[in-house]
Amino acid sequence: MKKTPLACLIWFLTLAPVFAAGDLPTADARFATAPMEQVELGQLLFYDPILSGNRGVACATCHDPEFGTSDGVSLSLGDGGVGRGVARAPDPDNLPEQRVPRNSPALFNLGADEFRSLFHDGRLEADSTEPTGFRTPLGSEMVAGFDSVLAAQAMFPVLSGDEMAGHYSENEISRAVRQGRLTDPQDGAWALIAARVGQLPGYRRRFDAVIGTERDIRFTDIANAIAAFVAFEWRADQSPFDKFLRGEADLAPDEKEGMALFYGRAGCSACHSGQFQTDQSFRAIAMPQIGPGKAAPFENHSRDTGRAEVTGAPEDMYRFRTPSLRNVTQTAPYSHAGAYATLRSVVVHHLDPVAALSAYDRRQAVLPDLPGAQDWRILDDPAEIAAIAAANELEPVNLNASEVDALLAFLGALTDEASLKGRLGVPESVPSGLTVGGR
After folding, report:
1. pLDDT beyond 90 at 283
2. 320 forms bridges with which residues in the sheet?
3. Distance between CA atoms of residues 241 and 239, nearest Å
4. CA distance 12 to 4
């Protein structure tokens, strides 16, 4: 049923004691657009394992639309894994060195203008003071030519041995990465990948329509095409909540109850604000740490201190990005390390983070078997647990089971069903002739 702006106002006024109408966002997000030739080219590149060192891992390996543009596991198996999603397993002939340290994030709405930094720790950010327009882990080695933060982000996984590059000495890409040759225009890892793509007639022909015929394909061209596809394919702004905000439809009673809690007493919107339920900032909420963590090559630990890895600031210890909640019912497991397998469990964690950390049930983790993995080093160390708990910023909130049910109903109203399928879908084949989506 269509809900007129006047009806919305009347409904807001009836809930004035619960929350203010001004607390609700507006449905006015702005999105990047690109020519369809570039979008369709990006679709092929996204599903083509040609970008990985051993030609076995595609972007879609860890960002599979069947799993809400993630992969259904807490921590991915990239290079050295075979299969998809929760069925992915180590290749006994090429075992992964370790799990990917952080949960594979969903890709919904990353083409919206408000997303100015990406990754769980925000280590890639738009920055007009930088010559390239971005602040990245590459520092002064970062090259110009990326159209957006999304384009720049899309191409960092190819430099990760655990994700796409492969083990040292396995291939020319992994060797370049291990030797620190990343952005060199002649023999850097990015240049080697671009040359691979440029040698395939099916790609050269499609790039001609996007960049012209007068120059070689550059790595930035590949990244820009993938970003154009992601922005187009997984735009998600047609949920019941969006339609409610625009006065186009009503919400169910339990969804309204959950919305009142979300924007009122439960305090969720203090961090999960804006149309896509993220303030684009970072919070420490005592999330359990599992897996290998984010140790530097010379370090031997499994902790992940999040934003502090980027800023070096003590106040940023254990802070991680506030995730968008769009299509959140479809993107489990949850948290930077995928510690929670169900949406209810991660909502309950937010109600009393320190208590939830101490009572964490390890059966919540969805971890494909990996010989030799030391997944519980942090949770087995009382000092590490205490440090995570001490950084917590959330005060406990008292909600009963029916109120949690209502919150979950509202979170369900953030689902854009059409976006889950994607607009172009999965291609039947890719120009390299390799397996679509990777092994």
Report:
1. yes
2. 283
3. 5
4. 12
What pTM was estimated for this model as a whole?
A: 0.94
Q: Average the pLDDT over each of 23-32, 113-122, 216-225 and give the range with the smallest value.
A: 23-32
What SS3 state is found at 77?
A: coil
> 153 is written with which tokens?
């982000």
DSSP string, 164-202: II-STTSSHHHHHHHTT-SS-TTTSHHHHHHHHHHT-HH
Q: What are phi and psi of 381, to 5 degrees?
A: -115, 105
The token duo for 314 is 């003590």
Average pLDDT over residues 361-366: 98
Question: Residue 333 contacts by C-beta under 8 Å, 6 or more apart in sequence?
Answer: 72, 73, 74, 103, 339, 340, 341, 364, 365, 366
DSSP 288-303: ---SS----TT-----
At 76-90, the pLDDT tens digits run: 999 999 999 999 999
Domains of the chain: 5-28+238-415 (1.10.760.10), 36-70+105-235 (1.10.760.10)
Closest CA to 67 of 439, 363, 437: 437
Record the tokens describing residue 50, joined without a space.
């040609």
How many angstroms separate the CA atoms of 250 and 395, rounded? 32
DSSP codes of every residue in 384-431: HHHHHHHT--PPP----HHHHHHHHHHHHTT--HHHHH-SS---S--T
Can you read off the two tokens belonging to residue 77? 């198996």
Question: How many whole angstroms separate alpha carbon 385 and alpha carbon 389?
Answer: 6
Handedness of CA 187, 193, 195, 199 (dihedral sign): positive
For the chain, helix (H) and strand (E) counts, in that order, are 16, 7
CB contact set of 185 (below 8 Å; sequence gap of 6+):
191
Q: Which pLDDT score, from 0 to 100, does residue 19 have?
A: 54
Q: Please give the backbone phi and psi of residue 82, each rounded to the nearest 5 degrees, phi first.
A: -135, 145
- What's the pLDDT tens digit per position in 159-192? 999 999 998 889 999 999 999 999 999 999 999 9
